[in-house]
User: Which sequence fits this backbone?
């Protein structure tokens, strides 16, 4: 088991290397954090868009508008101001407006609609009238709500205008040359589904990211330090050396991948998915299924990185080449985004695409056929062995050993 | 024992080693003397199995290097030109890594590593990481890891390059001790003093060709010059 000696040394080295450890530990945290925040945001928005409570000052002055708002699902909350207004005035006093401002700043309200006392009388005489919507624009969560209020008030205004025109014998179409009709077909469910699609993406990326530092250090790093030549004077066949280095990167890659997956599902379990009507049931069986699907990638990704790493003269070189390789895991993600066809048999032989499809199935709750698993796994293993063989051949080249 | 016969190595148009023949016997220190670029490193690299010669033969303890490079590597210790230490491993870990690559069992490895650390006076750096080692300290680590399996043959490429006097002297005394144990030591250098102070046999090499092999006294007799530098100049000039 000579390769174990090499793997052991590379692992010892990697555990002392902050760069390699950071890749292993930081990347897996990224995905779950992202998922957690995205889902919570969607669920919050879904909850809040449904129910809007509108604090109103002077609701009694605008019976028609208030009715209209209530018909459109807004709950009105009349605000009684503590500050008394100027007796007999048609306007709110500066003190009263200051009180409204204070209430918003102190977060008692997110926004307040202020209707002036003369509202109905001005409207009935077809005079323009201002209602004030007091908002705090930095409070992002409130913005869809007061946006909705503003829309409704304006819609009410357009309706009143239309009625006035009709009363004067003019078609209301004249002042409405164009109407925008917005139709949002996304159900909350489909939005969540599309976010679930990033789970396979993160898992596949992990296979590439987590072992890369180790793979590069064991190959290009070895060339850069000029420690390859002293290593090769020992009577150990090249393929054993390559396998040893490969396995050290495989361990990092597999550990990272497993970590990513567990953290992803942990964070999904913390999100109240049932509130948007998604049943997301991942049991230990599915987790095993996903591991079986993706672990072949933890063999493949490091084998590519070892091959490229040996080819590269220095760390910098290797990183330049490998940044292209990092595009590979993204390819199936984009392919599937644009591809509307059903899966075809040949796709099982395309590494990463195959795993991506299998993962998508598993995450959705479907069970892919055993044959698909087998083909995807075995072909990934076959490709890795080709790269390992290629790397051992490269290591025999004089140009690689001595420069 | 190292025997080289008619060895030739070309890099595209350049003939790096040109029909070189020489030998290095047991119980002697043999020096490969030549300018930079004379073909010393290339010759040694063929001997320790990392370069393939285009023609000719090289045998170490009667093992054909070209036919069985791994077998030949078993019986040699090599100090390459580049030290190539790993900054995150300690001196001891470097030695033990090579011991494991040579399939030594744990007990023997521990014993041998301690032995070498004593021999090369490395107690203070043994468990420090190689990051920041001085040239001399690096050299000691390299020498000890190439000796870890107690090889019969030792091949060293420019071993005392860039070393201070103290380290140079301790390396010399270790080589003398190895010679007394009947080991075969082949080293390359372009420093005349080094060669004349250390070597029993001198091989003069220029443009890939072996121009002369013999003891210091032989070389003096054949060139009529007592000083190695003068003799070397005479030999290399006569070639053109």
Assistant:
């Amino acid at each position: 088991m000579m390769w174990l000696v090499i793997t052991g040394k590379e692992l010892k080295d990697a555990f002392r290397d902050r760069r390699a450890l950071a890749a292993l530990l930081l990347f897996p945290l990224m995905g779950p954090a992202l998922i957690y925040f995205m889902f919570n945001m969607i669920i919050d928005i879904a909850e809040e868009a449904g129910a809007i409570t509108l604090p109103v000052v002077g609701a009694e002055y605008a019976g028609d508008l208030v009715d209209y708002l209530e018909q459109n699902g807004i709950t009105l909350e009349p605000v009684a101001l503590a500050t008394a207004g100027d007796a007999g005035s048609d306007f709110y006093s500066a003190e009263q407006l200051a009180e409204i401002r204070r209430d918003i700043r102190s977060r008692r309200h997110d926004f307040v609609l202020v209707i002036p006392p003369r509202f109905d009388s001005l409207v009935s005489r077809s005079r323009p009238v201002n209602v004030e919507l007091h908002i705090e624009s930095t409070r992002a969560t409130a913005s869809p709500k007061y946006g909705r209020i503003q829309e409704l008030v304006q819609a009410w205004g357009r309706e009143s205008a239309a009625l006035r025109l009709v009363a004067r014998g003019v078609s209301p179409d004249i002042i409405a040359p164009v109407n925008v009709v917005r139709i949002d077909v996304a159900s909350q469910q489909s939005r969540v589904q599309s976010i679930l699609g990033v789970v396979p993406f993160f898992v596949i990326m992990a296979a590439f990211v987590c072992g890369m530092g180790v793979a590069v250090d064991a190959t290009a790093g070895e060339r850069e330090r000029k420690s390859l030549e002293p290593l090769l004077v020992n009577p150990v066949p090249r393929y054993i050396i390559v396998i040893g280095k490969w396995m050290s990167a495989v361990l990092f890659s597999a550990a990272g991948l497993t970590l990513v997956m567990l953290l992803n599902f942990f964070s999904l379990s913390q999100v109240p998915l049932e509130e948007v009507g998604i049943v997301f049931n991942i049991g230990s069986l599915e987790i095993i299924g996903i591991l079986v699907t993706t672990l072949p990638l933890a063999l493949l990704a490091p084998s590519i990185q070892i091959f490229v790493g040996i080819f590269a003269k220095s760390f910098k070189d290797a990183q330049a080449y490998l940044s292209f390789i990092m595009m590979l895991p993204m390819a199936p993600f984009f392919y599937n985004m644009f591809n509307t066809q059903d899966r075809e048999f040949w796709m099982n032989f395309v590494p990463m695409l195959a795993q991506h499809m299998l993962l998508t199935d598993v995450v959705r709750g479907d069970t892919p056929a055993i044959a698909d698993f087998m083909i995807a796994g075995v072909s990934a293993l076959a490709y890795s062995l080709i790269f390992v063989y290629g790397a051992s051949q490269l290591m025999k080249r004089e140009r690689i050993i001595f420069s | 024992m190292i025997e080289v016969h008619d060895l030739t190595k070309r890099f595209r148009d350049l003939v790096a080693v040109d029909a070189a023949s020489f030998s290095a016997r047991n119980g002697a220190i043999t020096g490969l003397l030549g300018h930079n670029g004379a073909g010393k490193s290339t010759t040694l690299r063929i001997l320790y199995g990392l370069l393939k010669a285009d023609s000719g033969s090289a045998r170490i303890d009667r093992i054909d290097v070209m036919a069985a490079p791994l077998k030949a590597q078993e019986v040699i210790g090599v100090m390459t030109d580049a030290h190539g230490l790993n900054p995150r491993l300690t001196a001891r870990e470097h030695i033990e890594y090579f011991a494991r690559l040579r399939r030594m069992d744990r007990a023997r490895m521990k014993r041998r590593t301690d032995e070498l650390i004593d021999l090369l006076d490395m107690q203070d750096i043994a468990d420090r990481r190689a990051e920041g080692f001085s040239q001399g300290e690096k050299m000691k680590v390299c020498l000890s890891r190439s000796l870890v399996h107690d090889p019969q043959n030792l091949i060293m490429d420019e071993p005392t390059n860039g070393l201070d006097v103290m380290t140079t002297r301790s390396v010399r005394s270790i080589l003398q001790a190895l010679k007394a144990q009947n080991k075969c030591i082949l080293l390359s250098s372009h420093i005349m003093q080094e060669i004349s102070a250390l070597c029993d046999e001198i091989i003069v090499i220029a443009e890939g060709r072996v121009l002369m092999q013999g003891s210091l006294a032989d070389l003096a007799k054949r060139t009529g010059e007592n000083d190695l530098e003068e003799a070397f100049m005479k030999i290399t000039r006569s070639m053109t």
